[in-house]
Amino acid sequence: MAKRKSERVSLRDYQQGVMQRLQSATTVAQVDVRLGLQIGNDHWLVDLGDVSEVMPVPMIAGVPLAHSWFKGVANIRGNLVSVVDLPAFFGQSHQGFTQLARLVLLPSRHLPHASVLVNKMLGLKHLSDLEALPLDASAAAWEGGRYKDATGQVWRVLDVVKLVNEAAFLQTGIA
């Protein structure tokens, strides 16, 4: 139903109303949820903002003279994306990946055309359901924290920004 002239809202009032609704929506929508991943034998949490997409593992073309943890490149919708075997990069030996393995595409703002292979997805985890643990001296540079769930399972926090800025992660070729 069309509003009459007497019921019209000024543009300024309308914009202020929209801004107030946006501000209240952003404060309500801040939920502390992380994506759970199995990387090798460990459980990890990653911020949803540090994941562009999760997909089944596509065909990967190997690259010569690269570290064993650098699996090669994959064609993702016409773009070549580098693929890092994250358990191998973390120094864990494993028997390969199963059907549960996933390719996690990283946002371009962190590292363009990059992805990591993980063993499987473990769902969404609420940090409020976990107990924070202190980091010890053995923590890797890309480990942003540790938590423990009700079953005693330790969850490590993957700091994607620190990972992609690690010199070893960026140096995929064998020197």
Walk me through this protein's architecture.
It holds the Pfam family CheW. InterPro entries: CheW-like_dom_sf (IPR036061), CheW-lke_dom (IPR002545). This is Chemotaxis protein CheW. The chain has 175 residues and is an alpha+beta fold. The protein has one domain: OB fold (Dihydrolipoamide Acetyltransferase, E2P). Helix content is 18%, strand content 35%. The protein contains four helices and eleven strands, in the order αβββββαββββββαα. The chain has helices spanning 11-28, 86-89, 160-164, 167-170; strands spanning 33-39, 42-47, 53-56, 70-76, 79-85, 102-105, 114-118, 120-126, 131-133, 143-148, 154-158. It has a six-stranded mixed beta sheet. The radius of gyration is 21 Å and the shape is globular. The mean pLDDT is 90.
**Overall number of domains:** 1
Strand content: 25-35%
Low-confidence segments: none
Q: In terms of structural class, how would the helical and strand content be classed? A: alpha+beta
How would you name the CATH homologous superfamily?
CheA-289, Domain 4
| Rg over C-alpha atoms, rounded to the nearest angstrom | 21 Å
Number of strands: 11
Within the CATH hierarchy, at the fold level, what is the topology? OB fold (Dihydrolipoamide Acetyltransferase, E2P)
Treating each run of at least 4 consecutive H or I residues as one helix, how many helices? 4
Mean pLDDT: 90
Helix content: 10-25%
Give the spatial strand order of the biggest sheet.
Answer: 8-1-2-11-10-9
